[in-house]
């Protein structure tokens, strides 16, 4: 009641004296923050939302607004509820992402199969000669052909051919080893 009376007085004062944004902001900022605080319950959040409301108010044609306190009240309530809806969506999205991460987590069987494949690859790499093993490991670690040539002591122009041969030999050994297991 007291606030409404003050607002009515302030409205008259503001409309009579000046229409500058600064005066309107100074006059109505506490009112807008209180309006938002009724909905969001956090002072800092209410002040942030109030700034957004006044930013929107600043970009609005004030001559088209019939009653500035009513416009600010409605805008602050809408902004507060929009904030709550956005927070609710963000929380739901984070919970969904957390649930998906749990869903993606590999089972113990998957972890065992992955570990078995790693051991198989290491065994096959151990069967290759040193140059083939170095070429394959460095290639799949992201090294360039020039670095592969320097590490193996070969010409850069020969790296592609040696790499293809190493891949082919690896594939044959791996298939033979996997075929022998099944």
TrEMBL record:
<keyword id="KW-0731">Sigma factor</keyword>
<dbReference type="InterPro" id="IPR013249">
    <property type="entry name" value="RNA_pol_sigma70_r4_t2"/>
</dbReference>
<dbReference type="InterPro" id="IPR014284">
    <property type="entry name" value="RNA_pol_sigma-70_dom"/>
</dbReference>
<dbReference type="InterPro" id="IPR039425">
    <property type="entry name" value="RNA_pol_sigma-70-like"/>
</dbReference>
<dbReference type="InterPro" id="IPR036388">
    <property type="entry name" value="WH-like_DNA-bd_sf"/>
</dbReference>
<dbReference type="InterPro" id="IPR007627">
    <property type="entry name" value="RNA_pol_sigma70_r2"/>
</dbReference>
<keyword id="KW-0238">DNA-binding</keyword>
<dbReference type="Pfam" id="PF08281">
    <property type="entry name" value="Sigma70_r4_2"/>
</dbReference>
<protein>
    <submittedName>
        <fullName>RNA polymerase sigma factor SigX</fullName>
    </submittedName>
</protein>
<dbReference type="InterPro" id="IPR013324">
    <property type="entry name" value="RNA_pol_sigma_r3/r4-like"/>
</dbReference>
<comment type="similarity">
    <text>Belongs to the sigma-70 factor family. ECF subfamily.</text>
</comment>
<keyword id="KW-0804">Transcription</keyword>
<keyword id="KW-0805">Transcription regulation</keyword>
<dbReference type="InterPro" id="IPR013325">
    <property type="entry name" value="RNA_pol_sigma_r2"/>
</dbReference>
<dbReference type="Pfam" id="PF04542">
    <property type="entry name" value="Sigma70_r2"/>
</dbReference>
<feature type="domain" description="RNA polymerase sigma factor 70 region 4 type 2">
    <location>
        <begin position="121"/>
        <end position="169"/>
    </location>
</feature>
<feature type="domain" description="RNA polymerase sigma-70 region 2">
    <location>
        <begin position="24"/>
        <end position="90"/>
    </location>
</feature>
